[in-house]
Amino acid sequence: MITSTDIAILDRDDPLAALRDRFVLPEGVIYLDGNSLGPAPRATREEITAVVEEEWAQDLIASWNKAGWFALPQSLGDRLAPLVGALPGELLVCDGVSANLFKCLHAALALRPDRHVLVAEEAGFPTDLYIASGVGQSHGDLTTRLEGRGGADLESLIDGDVAVVLVNHVDYKTGALRDMHALTRLAHGKGALVIWDLCHSAGVMPIDLAGCGADFAVGCTYKYLNGGPGAPGFLYVASSHHEGLTQPLTGWWSHADPFAFSPDYQAAPGIKAMLTGTQPILSMRALSAALDVYEDVELDVVRAKSTALTDLFVSLIRERCDGHGLTLVGPADARDRGSHVSLSHPDGFPIMQALIAHGAVGDFRAPDILRFGFAPLYIRFCDVEAAVEKLKEIMDQGTWRDPAFTRRSVVT
Ligand SMILES: Cc1ncc(COP(=O)(O)O)c(C=O)c1O
User: Fold this and answer.
1) Region(s) of the chain under CATH 3.90.1150.10
2) What number of CA atoms fall less than 13 Å from residue 257's CA on the CB side?
3) Which label site among 125, 135, 217, 350 has the fewest CB atoms less than 10 Å from its CB?
4) In angstroms, rounded to a whole number, what is the distance separating the alpha carbons of residues 202 and 196?
5) Residue 213, burial from CB neighbour count under 10 angstroms (0-12, 13-18, 19+)
């Protein structure tokens, strides 16, 4: 039996405890949805005010040079690079995940012109499959093999015909974590390239893209990295693929000399060839402020707290919510999961709405998943216990049966 005293000790000994103060967290809310949208870092308001009032308002267009706006995709990319194990010059912060994936998929397929098979996950985040299908429209001979169809697992689908494997590092629904090293090695053994979707792992665990020999990666910055709603995505291309890198969204920012305004396109060397057009500078600067938090953080410490938080949640659910039909979805072993835990229940939607109304915010993923994210930079162990107690009360008392909790908004 885990007691509140045990939990207080975990908080007392938490090396990351002081970081919580660097975020704005509404009074009375236990926020377990930072795996979807991170909260606002305190530094963001100051940063955005400075960009608007000093740079934009005072220096106007000169800020593209003077304040380094034009170089932000690369400069922010170089700051983010160590968080995912990329080398300087291998990562750009730009556009959104879906657009970046479109570019990376095209670029990767161009590196394997004699192969026409893509391997992906049927249960992966849908945008990945939608983008793959869009890419397929301009690659008429592309066939997609999906993990999950007919019970096949990803590894068994990779053979000498496969050009690219598109895979999530952490599954958005189940929280299952893939072994990046092993899968990359297996794919390379068959001559295939791998694109990693890091949306649910970036910022919450050490990632070693270069050490694993990863080819491409995409990820978002609005979840664990706390860049804000609609914060830009990032993309990674291993430097070994920079020579002759091509992608179809050849806007002027990817031109070798954009201010020559030449009618003829010539790709910039290196990672800049993956750019397209003008970037959302305010959002990028919000991300810049959010990344400051990581200057004082070791990712293996973040990972250790993350596994302790998710383990505590799983244990408390087992001890205190038994008999209510809440089933753990995804790995039982914390080493095999990311930083969120999912429970299934046939009435998952109204249960989550009731929980939110009682001050613990998670989210719902159709058809029956209640998702709880544990972001180690600001979630305390006592928050985990308080959320489980609220869930227990809602289940014990059947509060969730109130018809008000069945009303659906667009975003779940
Ligand atoms: C795993 C995964 N990939 C891709 C996306 C889509 O990203 P975007 O809407 O920024 O294009 C998401 C969004 O939540 C995601 O969770």
Assistant:
1) 4-31+298-406
2) 5
3) 125
4) 11
5) middle
Q: Which residues line ligand 1 (CB under 6 A)?
A: 96-98, 125, 127-128, 168, 172, 197, 199-200, 220, 233
pLDDT tens-digit readout, 324-370 = 999 999 999 999 999 999 999 999 999 999 999 999 999 999 999 99
Distance 127 CA to ligand 1 centre (A): 7
The segment(s) of the chain belonging to CATH 3.40.640.10 are 47-295
CATH of domain 47-295: 3.40.640.10
Distance 218 CA to ligand 1 centre (A): 9
Which atom, in ligand 1's list, is nearest to the CA of 99?
Answer: 11
- pTM check: above 0.85: yes
CB 109 within 8 A of CB 139: yes
Rounded distance, CA 172 to CA 178, Å? 12
* Mutation test residue for ligand 1: of 103, 197, 220, the one with most atoms within 8 Å of CB: 220
d(CA 404, CA 335): 38
Q: SS3 breakdown of the chain: % helix, strand, coil, rounded to 5?
A: 45, 15, 40
Active site residues: 125, 197, 222-223, 371
pLDDT of residue 152: 85
What confidence category does residue 408 fall into, taking pLDDT thresholds of 50, 70 and 90? Answer: confident
CA angle 295, 300, 304 (to 5 degrees): 125
- CATH for 4-31+298-406 is 3.90.1150.10
Contact 255, 265 (CB under 8 A): yes
Contact 361, 32 (CB under 8 A): yes
Tell me the best of 35, 127, 166, 365 to mutate to test the pocket of ligand 1, counting ligand atoms within 8 Å of each CB and taking the most: 127
The residue with greater pLDDT, 412 or 22, is 22
